[in-house]
Specification:
Oligomer: single chain
Number of helices: 3
Helix content: 25-40%
Strand content: 5-15%
Order of helices and strands: HHEEHE
Number of strands: 3
Shape: elongated
Amino acid sequence: MRCSRRTVAGMLGAAAMAVAPLAVAAPAQAVTVYSSCDELNVDYPHGVGHPGAVDHTSGTPVTDFAIDQAVYDANKSGRDRDKDGIACEQH
């Protein structure tokens, strides 16, 4: 069976329109921006940091903080005062 170029082009166009909605990425989950460290510490009792963060302290470093890049990025402003990659760490 022979198909004309127009028929083949039509089939390809229809297939592309059927697949196109599947190629759209799902929206990213919204990350909570906390209003204070007290509020953040309810969900993250020892703070939240990015992968590889190390607590800068002269005492015992916090090692049990949550690691979540997106939450840290959304909440680091004003909450990571010592710039060690951990927001709202609790000693």
